[in-house]
């Protein structure tokens, strides 16, 4: 009976571990290229001038006309909060894009997070600004949003941070260094990370073919749990080509993932741009790898113990049955005397 309880406990343990892994897998989406399909239509919405490019697996975000804007939205709500206290969870999103122009001008792209209750048709609204976030200030004044817009040009790079209600939020402007121009249609990758424990959001870049890992970057503070107090959010990308009449922006891939926060010792993130150390980058990668290895070892150990106990249980049953089938020696002697 005790062995049966032990087997049941280990089975439930393995089931819970498997369920946790499955939940993590279901908490992300990944598009390595885009193809027109019923699944794509259910998950992704295109607004403004954005459209799928035939036979190229790309989304063209803007047209080659002045003040063109295009937006991509992942339609399924994302739950960023857990537990009774509705604490926020860490996440990361990756996307790669390119521009087909070599002119001196701005390549403007923004990552946007809004409450899932927001009417998605607002992403199709146009405005008179050259910003990728102008539609929020004009049509979503009373909504609580988090948005990061960055502009890349030969004259310098800039970023705009919008946290809170667009009508009353203080928009933070900053600049960051680095040659991020996408000459000859080369792609640029962007990774945006949110660390729930340190309540910081970090933005990193990497040019195609570069050995540098998402460098340079900038970061800012934001408490998502306090900002939204639970609930679900919708994420999207917005692009604008400003006053240039010959720029078309293309989205190549997009990924979003809910992940476990790293240990507290890894949260020495600089408050200003370009102060990150290589040791921190290496530590982040090692911690993520260690976490995955530890999870795999625990799962393997639990399954191994379950298999060993099950084998021992079956061997014990077979041994008992075999001993019952053999006639004891004393009984055999008594039968001979009779």
Provide an overview of this structure.
With 338 residues, the chain is α+β, with helices and mostly antiparallel strands. It has a domain at 43-256: Jelly Rolls, CATH 2.60.120.200. It is 29% helix and 33% strand. The strands form 3 sheets. Strands 1, 3, 4, 8, 13, 14, 15 and 17 form an 8-stranded antiparallel beta sheet that branches. A 7-stranded antiparallel beta sheet has the order 2-5-16-9-10-11-12. The protein starts with a helix and ends with a helix. Residues 6-26, 264-285 and 324-338 have low confidence and may be disordered.
Our estimate of the beta-strand percent is 25-35%
CATH fold field value of the domain at 43-256: Jelly Rolls
Fraction of helical residues: 25-40%
Rounded radius of gyration (Å) = 28 Å
- Classification by helices and strands: alpha+beta
Q: What is the CATH architecture assignment of the domain at 43-256?
A: Sandwich
Instruction: Compute the number of helices.
Output: 6
* Overall pLDDT confidence: 74
N-end to C-end Cα span: 41 Å
What would you call the shape? Answer: globular
Q: Which regions are unreliable across 5 or more consecutive residues at pLDDT < 50? A: 6-26, 264-285, 324-338
- The top-level CATH class of the domain at 43-256 is Mainly Beta
